[in-house]
# Entry
Amino acid sequence: MDIKTQAIEGTVASGEEPWVRVSRYAALTIAVYAVVFQLFAGFSPPVTVIGLMFLAFGVFLSSGRRRLAFASGTVALLLVVSFAAPLVDALTDLASLEAFALNWFLTLTAFVAFIGGIGAIRGESGRLVRPIVGLAVGLFVAGFVVSAVVAAGVEAAEPLAGDSRVVAESMSFVPEELVVGAGSGIWMENRDGLRHTFTVEGTDVELNVPGNSAGRMDLELEPGTYKVICDVPGHEAMAMELTITEGSQ
Ligand SMILES: [Cu+2]
# Structure
């Protein structure tokens, strides 16, 4: 028996390979995340499928399943890459704590899953498991604290007399059609945990409202009909019609 075989057998004899274990916990964490995410954002078929896939990875990952660990980590990383645009938007919007925390957690978990997969397929020792998992936990806590401080400093605007009110909730605007008099203001309440914008297409009129907050602005638009959208990546379905009439409504 050569030294390499002895080393591998020694690892197996002393229990699960450390990086396979990291992969397993990372996969199970992503599965749990899929459930928690839907508690916040509502039922989503693709998220459910992703959750079930990582549940399967977690269940089947056991000692010796190095290639499966690598596959699990790679899929986790691809997941993050394929959602890069909304992910980066949420990670750069510290004012929306809920969305920041969820996305930061998913990003770090996916990286740990990927590093776990690399460690597993290379048969690395567990020497770096603690530092890497510790670093991920530390980064999450640090990011959470910074976002919590920034979000606590956000002051929700109060509506002024005569403002038209819009609610952004469950990734849509309510109402979907709004008629306002020229020169009036708009007040938007955001009931979602992530930021939304009230962006009047074809103009530079835009109101950005962090998650679970409210904002207002004066509408300086010529009479006419406009399309209002939310310019956050992934919110393409958010739209409403705004009509500005002559004189005040
Ligand atoms: Cu939006």
